[in-house]
Amino acid sequence: MFHFLQTLLAHDGYWVILIVVFLNNIGFPLPGDMMVVGGGFLAGKEILSLWYVAAIGTAACFLGSTAGYGIGSRYGRRLLEKFKWFKLNPEKVGAMDR
């Protein structure tokens, strides 16, 4: 598994870091932190640039958090009311508004 991730990061490293960290910050369970650490590891081996890894990781984190907030503020209430497996009653949902 480690060899697969190292190969993926070595060939398409910046794009992989961008996509995985972005989706991780939206809320998908992906290893965003480990991708940045892997990018730093490859930067130490001079395969990737440390400054690009840091800049892309920072930008993806900011954009993912902003997109997650936008999705939650626009569709959050409807999603909470639609999916009953959250086990939220109207009182709990109302308490979130305060």
Fold topology:
Blueprint: H1 2-26, H2 32-44, H3 50-82, H4 90-96
Quick recap:
This protein has 98 residues and is mostly helical. The protein has four helices and no strands. The longest helix has 33 residues, at 50-82.
Task: Walk me through what this model shows.
The chain has 98 residues and is mostly helical. Helices cover 80% and strands 0% of the residues. It has four helices and no strands. It has helices at residues 2-26, 32-44, 50-82, 90-96. Helix 1 packs across helix 2, helix 1 crosses helix 3 (50-82) and helix 2 runs antiparallel to helix 3. The longest helix is centred in the C-terminal third of the chain and has 33 residues, at 50-82.
**Largest sheet geometry:** none
Low-confidence stretches: none
Total beta-strand segments: 0
Number of helices: 4
Going by helix content, strand content and strand pairing, the class is mainly alpha
Sequence of secondary-structure elements: HHHH
Tell me roughly what share of residues is in helical segments. Answer: over 70%
Strand content: under 5%
**CA-CA gap between termini:** 45 Å
Overall pLDDT, averaged? 85
Based on CA inertia axes, which overall geometry fits? elongated
Give the radius of gyration: 18 Å
List the keywords.
single chain; 98 residues; mainly alpha; 80% helix; 0% strand; elongated
